Amino acid sequence: MIVDVFHDTVCPWCRIGKQHLATTLAGWDGPPVTVHWHPFLLNEAIPPEGLDFRAYMAANKGADGLDAMFEHVRRAGTAAGVTLNFDKIRYAPSSIPSHRLLALVPEDRQDAVLDGIHRAYFEEGRDIGRVDVLADIAAAAGLDREPIAELLRGDATRDEVIEAATWARQQGVSGVPLFIVGGALALSGAQPPATILAALRQAAAQIGTAAH
Fold this sequence. Notes:
Elements: E1 2-7, H1 12-26, E2 34-39, E3 51-52, H2 53-61, H3 66-80, E4 91-92, H4 96-104, H5 110-123, H6 131-140, H7 145-153, H8 158-170, E5 178-181, E6 185-188, H9 193-211
Parallel strand pairs: 1-2
Antiparallel strand pairs: 1-5, 3-4, 5-6
Helix pairs in contact: 1-3, 1-9, 4-5, 4-8, 5-6, 6-7
């Protein structure tokens, strides 16, 4: 059974949703599940060098209530089991490079690499728009650092990422995370594990019915 996840690497709710999915799958006793990660760009116009994080967020969300919003999301992260240190983030990076990294690594390593991207950005406040940071993340996941760094310095997978993100918007994806379970059931937002579990059970039942 396939779970397709549309996400952006700089989206905190995507990190929370990923953790909710992992929690659900850890106790799943139904058909084997394969997760496919699909890029979505919340803002593809951010320049390669990034923008000042707080100024960018204030311009997009409004300066009033910004700290309260961060605290709300941070608490949701804590409840899910992930850390979100917004006070450590200095840059709003272009997420294209980090999506390019995910597209470069083998599918069975994408989950670990995405966790590394999330930890670097949301916990350590590192600039995931930088090639050296992304190469470090790949190396920490057991991949060869220098070949990946060299590919990221060039244009490898750039068109692939942008085309995939454009396709997602053309299909009507307007916000992330978005989970498509079994090719049919759509869950929008960082849904709790119980909701994801119910969707998995429904999709598994439909697959079972179709097989008979």
